[in-house]
Structure formats: structure tokens, C-alpha cells
Amino acid sequence: MSDASMAGHLRPFKDYQARHFLWQASEDGRVATIRLNRPERKNPLTFESYAELRDLFRDLAHASDIRAVVLTGAGGNFSSGGDVFEIIEPLTKMAMPDLLAFTRMTGELVKAMRKCPQPIIAAVDGICAGAGAILAMASDMRLATPEAKTAFLFTRVGLAGADMGACGILPRIIGQGRAAELLFTGRSMSPEEGQAWGFYNALHAVGSLEAEALKLAHSLADGPWFAHTMTKTMLNQEWAMGIDEMIEAEAQAQAICMATKDFRRAFEAFAEKRKPTFEGD
Q1: Same-domain pairing of 64 and 51
Q2: How many CB atoms lie within 10 A of CB 237?
Q3: Segment 141-168, tens digit of pLDDT
Q4: Could you report the per-residue pLDDT of 26-78, keeping only the tens digit for each?
Q5: Does 279 map to a domain?
Q6: Are the C-beta atoms of 153 and 82 separated by less than 8 Å?
Q7: In a 3-state reduction of DSSP, which class is residue 82?
Q8: Residue 117 in contact with residue 65, Cβ under 8 Å?
Q9: How far apart are CA 170 and CA 45, in angstroms?
């Protein structure tokens, strides 16, 4: 695709107008913060917010400015999951075709998060339960506070732990036995367990959590972000590959990165003993 035709597919997202959550982009437009914003209910998800999040993460593949995303919640909690009265109660009255349409739609949100090129950093404080825990799980990295309470509590409401990819993704993060325990029992994972098991990359005090998440996001956004998108792509694709396929796929991915101007810039900066500036081309 030519540069001219590619430009027609890209658009700035700095001024995106969210309807069912808060959206804020940094001054340079490189880092966006998505804030679930129903603090009086611990930021539950609704049919509408599920759908808008799915569509936004899909559309971020066409963003010309956003290079990293921070996902968090308002009012001291991340998300309590599906809203009891706006989602759970209506689901009890639906026929199978509508139930399947809903579960497929929620799964599409996870797929959109995994496929969007930008690294997603979840900043988790307080309640992170049900679908909220899935949003954290589907992110690329997770930071939390010592007050975070993370629970995949689907079995507690008579549902399988197999929700939105949890039985496939969670074991890859924390291991099969630990994932089985959390998905069967629905118990909360403590922040200390989450960090020791690799679910959380780091723990930070409540007052510094978001600043640390933004710091990490900006460091990624200022780095070789084309190469970061390639890393995210390969992390996802290699789950289903054998070792020979993995090595060949990574050979192709790395050769593509070696053909970028950013690779040349990094070499020149190293030779001149200065910090490189990455442009993503």
C-alpha cells in the first residue's frame, strides 16, 4: 500500500469523543487514557460500554497518533464487571440466540484488545472483578495497588470460569494450576499473589499508580513503536505455533523491523552517543 493510500486509512484519535467512559489523550497525542467512569457502582460494564470499547480498540488499528493506552477506573476501583441490573438481570430473560450473541460480543472485545497494535497497560486499584478482571487480563501489562482485589468470580453466579478467553489466556499468564484455582473457586487474588504469579508487573501506592502507568506508557510511546506493534503481534500469533513456525515467523518480523528507518536511526544515535528519536517509519 502506498503512503498516500495508507494515509487515507489513518486518522488522529486525540480528540475521540467517548460516550460510555472517559477518554483523555496526552498533549502530544501519543498516550491515551481510557477511564471507566461509573464510580458510584464501582465502574460496571453495560451492553453499550462493552460495544463501544470493542469498536474503539478495533478502530485504534487505524490511529495515526496513539501509541500506547492506559486502561483504568474512576473513584478508587477498576471495574466490578457486568452491571447486575443492566446486564445480569436482562440475561436471565434472554433466549439462547441472544445469549450467544452477547457472549460473542464480549469475546470480540478481548480479541480487539489483543489485536490493536498499541500496548495496553491496565492500572488496577480496588475492585477488579468478573469482566473487569478479564479487561485487566486482556491488557498487555498490569500495574496494581496493594488495595487491588482481583477475582474471576463467574462460578459464584452459576457460570463457567470459561468467559471471554479466561481458560486460554489466564493460564498463560499465571500457570495452569493457579488459573484453575481462581476460575473454579472465584476467590480474590491478592495483589501480592498477583505480582508473585506474574499477573501484575508491579505494585504501586494508590497515589502513584496512575502516574507510574502513564510513565510506562510514555516510555513505550517514545520508543520504537513500530517494533512494539510487531512484538505484540508476535506475542499473540505464536501461541498457536510450533517451534519451527515461531522461529521463522520471528525471522520475518525482525527482518521487517530491520528495514525501517527507525532501525537506522537507532544505530546512528548509538554511534553518536545520543538518545534515538523514533518516528515509526
Answers
A1: yes
A2: 14
A3: 999 999 999 999 999 888 899 999 999 9
A4: 999 999 999 999 999 999 999 999 999 999 999 999 998 999 999 999 999 99
A5: no
A6: no
A7: strand
A8: no
A9: 20
Contacts of 69 (CB under 8 A, 6+ apart): 31, 32, 33, 34, 60, 116, 118, 119, 120, 121, 217
Q: Are residues 196 and 245 in the same domain?
A: no
276, part of any domain: no
Which alpha helices (DSSP H) does 30-189 contain, by range? 47-59, 89-91, 96-115, 131-138, 166-174, 176-185
Q: Which domain holds residue 238?
A: 225-271
164 to 8, 49, 111: CA distances (angstroms): 33, 16, 9
148 lies in the same domain as 184: yes
CA distance 14 to 162: 35
Q: Closest by alpha carbon to 37, among 25, 27, 46?
A: 46
Domain shared by 263 and 161, yes or no: no
Q: Please, which pLDDT band fits residue 7 given cuts at 50, 70 and 90?
A: very low
Higher pLDDT, 11 or 195: 195
Measured between alpha carbons, how far is 265 from 65 in angstroms, rounded to an integer? 20
Q: Which tens digits make up the pLDDT trace of 91-121? A: 989 999 999 999 999 999 999 999 999 999 9
The alpha-helical segments, DSSP class H, found in the chain are 3-9, 47-59, 89-91, 96-115, 131-138, 166-174, 176-185, 191-196, 209-221, 225-237, 243-258, 261-271
